[in-house]
Amino acid sequence: MSSKLKILVPLKRVIDFATKPRINKAGTGVETTGVKFSMNPFCDIALEESLRIREANKDIVEKIHAVSIGPTKAQDILRTALAKGADTSTLVDVGNEEVEPLIVAKLLQKVVEKEQSNLIILGKQAIDDDANQTGQILAGLLNWPQATNASKVEIDGTKVTVTREVDGGSDTLSAELPMIITADLRLNEPRYATLPNVMKAKKKPLEKLKSSDLGVELVSRLETLKVEEPPARAAGVKVGSVDELVSKLKEVKAI
Ligand code: AMP
């Protein structure tokens, strides 16, 4: 295998992390009308890592390709990725269809074949469904080694070393390309796109495909039965002294 990296970065368009999600009237999901959408924050970190790999290793990266599976509007996050430094991109337009991780992974597998990618950097999870599954399923479909929850990535020729965040410490893994990495929060701090680069990105390639072009059927195996708000918290009580606090705590049998 050539040691030049062809990096694929899958990006999901999700409700902006700063928006407080509300349940829709039907109780089947989150209300999306009139809500701001942006690139999933962990995907932004994955993209940033691919850019840093190119900056830190002269001539090692042949191409950084961004891909999103979602509605036509997901092209906005691809344009942002192109403005930040991705070279090319693909939108797999699935309209307003909710696509579950297995199908996302099957579509990504086809894009990997098309783009001849040898390193895939995904976010560890999408903040809308919190599935934390796509990278792992894709590694299974491709039969490639994977390192999830990366907090550090080092490349030496075709060898990739990844430090992972695990409970109470870190875990260091290494594998030969091709490989899959999923990005954790502390991997890096993503850059902003500059205005000149936003303008230049308008001319960069954005290929539009349908799932049928990739020969993948959009089927769902999971059905969402109900989405509920967490129970409202009971109102608090103000106490005037430590003695009063102690007697209140005794009253509710907390001590
Ligand atoms: P999830 O398994 O849904 O929590 O998502 C984990 C990662 O998989 C995300 O951070 C993305 O990198 C990728 N991913 C998930 N869904 C999509 C999608 N619809 N389009 C592109 N990438 C996706």
TrEMBL record:
It comes from the Eukaryota. It comes from Australozyma saopauloensis. One of its GO terms (biological process) is amino acid catabolic process. The electron transfer flavoprotein serves as a specific electron acceptor for several dehydrogenases, including five acyl-CoA dehydrogenases, glutaryl-CoA and sarcosine dehydrogenase. It transfers the electrons to the main mitochondrial respiratory chain via ETF-ubiquinone oxidoreductase (ETF dehydrogenase). Belongs to the ETF beta-subunit/FixA family. It is found in: Mitochondrion matrix. Pfam families: ETF. One of its GO terms (molecular function) is electron transfer activity. Its cofactor is AMP; FAD. This is Probable electron transfer flavoprotein subunit beta. Keywords: Electron transport, Mitochondrion, Transport. Transmembrane segments: none annotated. Heterodimer of an alpha and a beta subunit. Binds 1 AMP per subunit. Binds 1 FAD per dimer. The keyword Transport applies. GO terms for cellular component: mitochondrial matrix. The keyword Mitochondrion applies. InterPro entries: ETF_a/b_N (IPR014730), ETF_b (IPR012255), ETF_beta_N (IPR033948), Rossmann-like_a/b/a_fold (IPR014729). Residues 27-218 form the Electron transfer flavoprotein alpha/beta-subunit N-terminal domain.
